[in-house]
Design brief:
This protein is an alpha+beta fold and about 270 residues long. It folds into two domains: about 110 residues, Beta-grasp domain (Ubiquitin-like (UB roll)), CATH 3.10.20; about 130 residues, Orthogonal Bundle (Fumarate Reductase Iron-sulfur Protein, Chain B, domain 2). The chain has eleven helices and nine strands. The strands form three sheets. It has a five-stranded mixed β-sheet. Strands 6-7 form a two-stranded antiparallel ribbon. Strands 8-9 form a two-stranded antiparallel sheet. Strand 3 and strand 4 form a beta hairpin. Helix 3 runs parallel beside helix 8. The longest helix is centred in the C-terminal third of the chain and has 16 residues. The radius of gyration is 23 Å and the shape is elongated. The site of FE2/S2 (inorganic) cluster has 12 residues, from loops. The site of one iron/sulfur cluster has 14 residues, from helix 6 and helix 8.
């Protein structure tokens, strides 16, 4: 019978072809191939860490959590956007080979590490936080905002976004319009607008109902196809378009959340 230790027994070698480029030093991008021993459990992140430690300390790539939680490690694996910390080498190796390159649609800092500044600027532009007009209640809270399970379910899937950039990298509109807000930011705009605690409808519509906003999306869904958390940003954008049209007809996305007296600190007496 197979034991869990078998997952870590070496089973052979794989050739990993890696994009190498330092825009500050190199005249043109190039490729470098590394051959490493792998087991069934070896992830691409494990492989790159070993290459960096044992063979090429100059190799640049991003990662942090190693558990598909932080969104730092997305890159192109055999031409497709993936999180390398949760992708096993042997799952994707073709003919004993893997090709790694930085995410499409992002400027390159070095090798496999991309510059996320524009991506995060766009995310920030849609104000990804709860906007409230009742400043007095915020400053001196008298209770908690009531939200039903059904109201929570309207935006829950979008809270899983890791900001990994895979959707943005796969989007053909981002590729041709560098100012397009992109699937991540637009779906997050929807996530906050439909949150019953939020009062930011007009402020966000001013950002997303624009020349480089949601109407540039032609619903090809490449973004949703590569999302590692099944957020489905393409669906969020279509719901956002509907919400904008309804708001032009005078419909509000939700009733404001009621403030209920807080139960925190209440002592239960027998
Ligand atoms: S929507 Fe999905 S693919 Fe896009 S940034 Fe969020 S987690 Fe990544
Ligand atoms: S559905 Fe819209 S945002 Fe997603 S990849 Fe297509 S054009 Fe880009
Ligand atoms: S290292 Fe955090 S998601 Fe991969």
């Amino acid at each position: 019978m197979e034991s869990s230790m078998d997952l870590w027994k070496p089973v052979g070698t794989v050739k990993i072809r890696v994009y190498k480029y330092n825009p500050r030093k190199d005249f043109a991008p190039g490729w470098k191939e590394y051959e490493i021993e792998v087991s069934r459990g070896t992830t691409i992140l494990d492989a790159l860490l070993r290459i960096k430690e044992e063979t090429d300390p100059s190799l640049a790539f991003r990662y942090s959590c190693g558990q598909a939680l932080c969104g730092s490690c997305a890159m192109m694996v055999n031409g497709r956007q993936m999180l390398i910390c949760r992708t096993r080498v042997l799952e994707v190796a073709k003919g004993g080979k893997i090709e790694l390159r930085p995410l499409d649609n992002f400027p390159i800092i070095r090798d496999l590490a991309c510059d996320f500044k524009s991506f995060f600027d766009k995310h920030r532009a849609v104000k990804p936080w709860i906007i409230r007009k009742d400043v007095e209640e915020l400053e001196n809270p008298t209770g908690d905002y009531k939200q039903t399970i059904e109201e929570y379910a309207r935006y829950y899937q979008f809270t899983d976004c890791l900001k990994c950039g895979a959707c943005y990298s796969a989007c053909p509109t981002v590729a041709t319009d560098h100012e397009y807000l992109g699937p991540q930011a637009l779906s997050q705009a929807y996530r906050y607008i439909v949150d019953t605690r939020d009062d930011g409808l007009e402020e966000r519509i001013a950002v997303v109902d624009s020349d480089h906003g949601c109407w540039r999306c032609h619903f090809a869904t490449s973004c949703s196809d590569v999302c590692p958390k099944y957020v489905d940003p393409a669906q969020g954008i279509q719901l956002l378009k509907k919400l904008i049209l309804r708001s032009k007809l005078g419909f509000k996305p939700h009733k404001p959340a009621e403030v209920l007296p807080s139960k925190i600190g209440e002592v239960k007496r027998g």
